[in-house]
Amino acid sequence: RVDDRDMPPGPKGLPLIGNVLDLLKEDSVIYFTRLAEQYGPFYSVQLGGRRVVVLSSSHWLNQAFVRQGDMFNHRPRGTVLSFIMGGKGIADAEDTVWRDSRRFTLHVLRDFGMGKRSVENYVNRELQDFMEVTQKSVGRAYNPHYDLATSVLNIVWHMFVGERFQMGDNTLRWIVDSLELSLTLVEQGGFLNYMPLLQFIGTFMKPRAVKVGRNVLHRLTYISELIAKHKATLDDPDRDFDLMYEFLLQQRKELRQGKTDTIFTDNQLKWLLSDLFIVGLDTTVTTLRWCFLFLVRQQDVQRRVFKEVEATIGLDRQPTYEDRLKMPYTEAFINEVFRFGSITPLAVHASPEETTLGGYRIPKRTWVIGNLYGIHWDKKVWGDPENFRPERFLNEAGEFVRSEHVLPFSVGRRNCLGESLARIEIFLFLTSMLQKYEFGVAEGFEKPSTNFRCGVTLNPCEYHILLTERNPIIMP
Ligand code: HEM
User: Fold this and answer.
1) Can you give the pLDDT at residue 476?
2) Each residue of 129-185: pLDDT tens digit?
3) Helix axis angle, 419-436 relative to 266-297, nearest 10°?
4) What is the three-class DSSP state of 142?
């Protein structure tokens, strides 16, 4: 029996299995949010053999992940996800491996701030190709998912390992497919997570499990080849700047210092990159898919964002990230997408030691789930969370007002370290697309639906749209 003495209150459920059968009936994010309406924003619930703590308000998220950050900065163990990731890389790592990998990655991302190396240059480079590809789909039903994924992957691939592919390149296609498939294997908050044996059987019996396994090995081999190439050109004065070179420079430095207890090994580099590509791709692509979906569904909203793009940037020059400062409605639109779409709905942490939160006991290795979806859909905060209304982020003067209850990147020691990069990508893709196209409903298709599939990310169902050029180039 689970020792739930002095833990936060919440439903107990049946002996042994607790409430886990509820998760067969509804998505975990809906379930956790429904319980928050009943038990408040800080409760615990028995699911299978564990009692899980769920935080569904910005207050409790900040209390746990920021103010008591050291006590809640581990990740769950005993899940398929932790089995596959094995505590390597960054997103699932803990202690020194996590801390040093995070420090290093943040440091490199900051170096992509200025001049030739600016993130905007990398994004604009891919936007050029994306525009050419979308041009071919003007006037017919178009599902932008795959082209978005290849462009977004190319951005991070170029920044981290210095390579970029032509759109449609087979290697690029293979990498995108393999990364997207990896995420579909694991469901983060759902039923199987709380049934240890079933979870492994259920996951690895899936026909795509073998394919995912083979893809991971293939990906790691490909990254090993890139490491070898980078090592061979490390001292080349004309080489470019990328994350892999920076890692290898640090590796060489530590080797010369005779340091043995270090994260700067080839193996860690492979896992770190594999993680960064997985978390950096699907999240950004999903956000952009939500953006396009709402442009089509709500033509009045599309008109207002477009008017702002036209008035502030015009239709001739490339948007810059700085333009957003003069574009309150666009900022409000993006925030409403983050709120409504809740792209990464659950931030799942674990407590390294027994501790207390709000006077309640939190045993060692308890899963503490930041229910970001619940915060974004809290009726008491938003009134009508089910309506997509960018206006909720504007004051009477039409200025953009940030809300402490929109936390798409989570908070504290483990918050998203790709936040700045993601924000730049989303703003530039959205505004550049609006400069060129009107978004409409494709003939023979319904308006895209707001129904979603719940995995590690909340994905809108696949949809087709109609792009119409705003200023068609008149061919002679
Ligand atoms: C709109 C796009 C994105 C969203 C909504 C998003 C959201 C999140 C969230 C909610 C977390 C979990 C935080 C927690 O556990 O408390 C996370 C973690 C992470 N994200 Fe993002 N992310 C996005 C894009 C990116 C990009 C582009 C990158 C970098 C390439 C990135 C890198 C990471 C990493 C490395 C972690 C793990 C951090 C750690 O465990 O210390 N993310 N992200």
Assistant:
1) 45
2) 999 999 999 999 999 999 999 999 999 999 999 998 888 888 888 888 888 777 777
3) 40
4) strand
* Atom number of ligand 1 nearest to Cα 349: 15
> Per-residue pLDDT tens for 11-47?
988 988 899 999 989 999 999 999 999 999 999 999 9
Rg (alpha carbons) of the chain, rounded to whole number? 23
414 lines ligand 1 (CB under 6 A): yes
Atom 18 of ligand 1, nearest CA residue: 416
C-alpha torsion sign, points 256, 258, 261, 265 = positive
Please list, in sequence order, all residues whose beta carbon lies within 8 angstroms of the beta carbon of residue 50, skipping any fewer than 6 positions away.
2, 194, 366, 367
Per the prediction, the chain carries an average pLDDT of 92
Beta-carbon neighbour count of residue 236 at 10 Å? 10
Q: Which residues of the chain have pLDDT under 70?
A: 1, 114-116, 186-189, 472-476
Alpha helices for 257-371 (secondary structure H): 266-297, 299-312, 328-341
| pLDDT, tens digit, 9 for 90 and up, residues 354-382 | 999 999 999 999 999 999 999 999 999 99
Separation in Å, CA 410 to CA 304, 344, 371, 406: 29, 9, 10, 9
For the chain, what are the domain ranges? Answer: 22-469
**Ligand 1 atom closest to Cα of 98?**
41
User: Which pLDDT does position 211 carry in this prediction?
Assistant: 79
Q: Kindly report the number of other CB atoms within 10 A of residue 219's CB atom.
A: 20
Long-range interactions of 184-187: CB distance < 8 A, separation 24+: 184/208, 184/455, 185/80, 185/209, 185/212, 186/79, 186/80, 186/81, 186/84, 186/455, 186/456, 187/28, 187/454, 187/455, 187/456
Q: Which CATH class is domain 22-469?
A: mainly alpha
Q: How much of the chain exceeds pLDDT 70, in percent?
A: 97
Identify the pLDDT of residue 385.
98
- The reply to whether ligand 1 has any atom less than 6 angstroms from the CB of 457 is no
Among 268, 274, 338, 416, the mutation site with the greatest number of ligand 1 atoms within 8 A of its Cβ is 416
Q: Which atom of ligand 1 is nearest to the CA of 93?
A: 40
Task: Kindly give the pairing relationship between strand 141-142 and strand 465-469.
Answer: antiparallel
Distance 458 CA to ligand 1 centre (A): 14
Q: What is the pLDDT of residue 237?
A: 94
ipTM of the complex: 0.99
Residue 408 near ligand 1, beta carbon < 6 Å: yes
Q: How far is the CA of 422 from the centre of ligand 1 (A)?
A: 9
pTM above 0.90, yes or no: yes
Ligand 1, closest atom to CA 423? 1
Centre of ligand 1 to C-alpha 276, Å, is 9
Give the separation between CA 52 and CA 192, rounded to whole angstroms. Answer: 14
Nearest CA to ligand 1 atom 21: 416
Q: Whose CA is nearest to atom 42 of ligand 1?
A: 418
